[in-house]
Amino acid sequence: MKLTTIIFYLLSIISVFSALIVVTARSPMRSALGLMFTFLGLAGIYVLLHAHLLAVVQILVYAGGVTVLFAFVILMIRHGEQISYSGPFMPVRVLSVLTVLYLVYLVGPIYLEVQRVKNALPAGFGTARALGESLFSSKHIIAFEAVGILLLVTMVASIALIGRHRKTKENQKEEEKLENRVEKVIPDGGNTDA
Predict the structure, then answer these.
(1) Alpha carbons 18 and 112: distance in angstroms, whole number
(2) What is the pTM of this model?
(3) Burial of 42 by CB count in 10 Å (0-12 exposed, 13-18 middle, 19+ buried)?
(4) Residues 133, 138, 142, 143, Cα dihedral to 10°
(5) Contact 55/126 with Cβ under 8 angstroms?
(6) Which end of the chain is more exposed for a tag (fewer CB within 10 A), N or C?
């Protein structure tokens, strides 16, 4: 057996075991940690498939960003009583087994198709260089620049909206200060009928 095959099976076992921890752990923080290890295992599988850019994105976006976001949300939410299911357990277990069998039924043909097409990919497929050459080629350059302009306009608009919101809050504070000064100078609100 090749070293890459051994590494693949090891990463697959780590990913599946971590995914089971995500679903079965009672602690939300353990679930988030299991999710992070699932993402890291998938990133390792992407490296074995020579999709290096996808592996880096998997680590940065999912294992780094999404998992940290989940951890912050879990830490910010108050932990109350754990909700437990008190209904009949037998139908739930039967439905779970049927769902897993149906999943195997769906994934089986896909696995066979992947084995057939596996060697049809060109050399360098999925690398950062191939993606860059595809994005900056003449047929995709207009779409790439349009997305860049759209992101720039979105960023400028969000900064303008935040600035406007800050100005209105500052104006309200200034008006309140001015009203307080007027009330100190004229305590009865300016009524001189007395």
Answers:
(1) 25
(2) 0.52
(3) buried
(4) -50
(5) no
(6) C
